[in-house]
Records
---
Amino acid sequence: MAIATDTRARLAQVDALRGFALFGILVVNIGVFASPFYGASTPDPAYSRPLDLTVGWLVAWLFETKFYLLFSFLFGYSFTLQMAAAERSQAAFAPRFLRRLAGLAILGLAHAVLFYQGDILVTYALLGLALLLCRRMDPGRALRGALWLIVLAAMAWAILGALSFLDPVQTGYAAQYKADALASIEAYRGTIGSTIEQHIKELIETIWFTVLFVQGPFVFAMFLLGYALGRRNALADPWRAPRALWLLCALGLLPGLAGAAVYATTALPWIGVAWELPGLAVGLLTAPLLSMSYAAAFLLALRTRPGRRAGVWLAPAGRMALTNYLMQSVVCAFLFTAWGLRLFASVSPLAAFGIAVVIFAAQMPLSAWWLRRHAYGPVEWFLRALTIGAWPPWRRAQAD
C-alpha cells in the first residue's frame, strides 16, 4: 500500500481509515433496517434467545456510537484538505464549501425519506455551516472546544439520566412500544408508499431529536478534532510519531471499552428502562476515546503486512465512501422493506451482521474496479461538480 505524504495527493491511509469506518457504520445501520426493536430495551419477541442478545450486546459494545464519530472526525480532517485545495487553485473556499453542503443536504433528505430515516448527511450539512465559521480557529482552541463539548454534552445526559429515576416509566410503555413496532412492520412490509410514510413519521417523531441532541454535539466535537489535527497535517505521515499512536491506544482503549460495556449492558431487556439514559451518558462520554483508539490501532496495523493488504482493499471503498454509504442503504432497503424483499423483522441479529459483511465484502472489489476506470465515485463526481462549479473528468484517462 503506497502511502502518500504529499498533502496534494490523496492520502491512502485516510481513505483506508474511512473505509474501515464505513464498515462499522453499516454494521450499526443494518440493525435499524432489520428490526423495529434494534437499540431498544424492549425485547424482540422473535429474537430473544441468548445468541440473539449476545450478538446485539457485542454490536452495541464494539460498534454503536463509535464509527459515526470516526467518520465525523474524517469529515473535519478532510475539511482542511479542501481548504488547502481551494487555496492552491486560488478559489474562494466559502462558496465552494457552501455548495458542497447544499449537495449533502439534498442527498441526505432524499436518502432519509426514500431509503434510511437514520441518515447522517443532513446533520453534516447543518453542522458544516458551523464548521465553516471555525475555519480560522487556532488548532489548540479547536481541540479544547471539542473536549469541552464532549464533556458538557455527556454531563447533560447524565443529569437527565439521574432525573429519570424520579419519573418512573409508565406502566404501558412496553405495550405501546410493541404496538408501534408492529405498526412499523406492517408499513415496511406494505408498499413503497407506506415505507416512505413510515420514514417521514419516524423522522418527525423521534429521529430529529436523536440527531440534534444525541449525535449532533458529538459530531461537531469530532469535526473540531479532525479540523485541529488536519491543520497540523497529522495524518500525512502519522507514523512519524508512533509513540503518540501507541499512547492514544493505551489511554483510550480500556476506558473506551469499559464505557461501551456499560452502555451495551444497560440496554439489555432485564436491566430496566430507567438505566438507559445513565448508560447512554457513560457511552457518549467514552465513545470518542474508543473511536480514536480504533483509529490509532488501525494506523499502526497498516504498518504490518496483513494491515497493508487490508488497507489496499479498504482504500478504494473509502475513496468513494459517499457512494458506498448510499448504496448500502439502497441494498438494505431492497432486502428489508417494500422496495424489494420485505425481510423487515424476519432476520436474526447474527444474520443481519452476516449480511453486512457480505455487502461490504462486495463493495470493496467493486470500488476498486470502478476507480480503475473513473476519476471519482458516481456520487462523489456529482458533489465535486457542484463544489467547483464545473464538470470534473469522468473517466480516469481524462483525469490523468
Note: The two ends are 20 Å apart (CA to CA).
---
Amino acid sequence: MKNFEFKNPTKIIFGKGEIQKIAAEIPADAKVLLLYGGGSIKKNGIYEQVKTALKDFEVEEFGGIPANPEYAILMQALEVIKEKEITFLLAVGGGSVLDGTKFLSSAAEYTGDNPWDILDKKIRTLKGMPFGTVLTLPATGSEMNSGAVITRAETKQKLVMGGPGLFPVFSILDPTVVRSIPERQIANGLADAFTHVLEQYMTYPVGALLQDRIAESILQTLIEVAPVILKDPTDYKAASNFMWSCTMALNGLIQKGVPTDWAIHMMGHELTALYGIDHARTLAILAGSHYTYNLETKKEKLAQYANRVWGVREGSMEERAKIGIEKTVAFFHSIGIKTKLSEYTKDYQGTGSEIARRLTERGMIALGEHGTLTPSDAEKIVELAY
C-alpha cells in the first residue's frame, strides 16, 4: 500500500426530511446565494423545503445552471455574488450544479484577472467561499469531494479543477428525492458511480486489501440496487443505498494508498465536449475498449474483479479478466445504456484522432496509472469504441 494522507471535512446529513436542517449549518449573518439548475426542484417540492429552511436568511437566487456547467453562465452568477456581496453559497441539484458552485466558490476568492485560468492553468483552490449542498441527483460524488468539471462551449473544452478549499461545508442527502428523477438520469447515476469505482480500483495490486474490498462492495451494491431503483424509484431502501454508494464512490476514501487511472474520464470529457453526450454515457462507451486495450497491464485486477464482484471462478487469469470486461459492458446494457460511439452520433469517424490532438494540446500525454498511455493510445482506444 502506498503512503497517503486523508482528510474529508464535509459534514453529511443523511436521511428523510433532513433538508429542514439547513439553517443550523449556515452562519446566522450569511448572505446566501441559492444555486440550482433547470427548475425541476420547483416541481418536486425541494425548492419549497429549501426556501422554508432559509426563511430567516437574506437570500438571492440564480437558476439555470445546465448539465455540464457552462463557464459563461457561471460568470453571470459570479457577477451576482460580487454585486450582492454574497458570503455563502448553497447548491441545490446534481453534480452539475454542485460543480458549478465549486467553480464559483473558487472564483469568488480568486484575485487574478481571468477566472478561466483556474481551470486552464490548473490552479488549485486552497480557500474558497464556503458552500453547502442539497443533493437531488446521486451520481458524481461532488457532494463529498473537492473536485469539479467545467465546460466552455465556445472553445469546446471540458476541464477539471479542485483543491482542499473546495469541500462542501455540509451536504444534505435525502434519498426521497430519487423518486422524482427520470429513469435516464438514474441510469446515468448508476453508470457514473460504477465507473468512478473502476477508475480507482482497476489498476494493479498493491496489497491494499481493505480499499479493494470497499470498492468491490460499492460495485456489488450498485449491481444489486440497479434493477430495483430503475423499476421503482420510490423504494426508499434502494434509493438510500444508491445515493450513499454514489457518495462513497468518489469521496476520496477508496483511492487512498492505491494507484488510480482516470484515463476513461479524460477521454470521456472530450466526447462530451465534442458531441454533448451525457458524461456517464461517455464512460460507458469507453470502459470496455479501455480495459480491452490495456488487458495485459490490468488483467490481475480484472480477474479479481470478475471473481469477487461477478462470481467468475473458472478459467485462467486472462480468461477471467476478459469475462470481467464482458460483464461490465453487460451491466451498462442492463441499465439501458448503449456502449458504442456510433450509437450516439453518425459523425464518429475521426473522433479518435481528434481526441488525441486535444489531449496533446492540453499536455495530457501520459495517462493511466502507469503514466504510459499516450494520445496515440487514446486514439486507438476511442476507435475500439466506435
Note: The chain has 14 helices and eight strands.
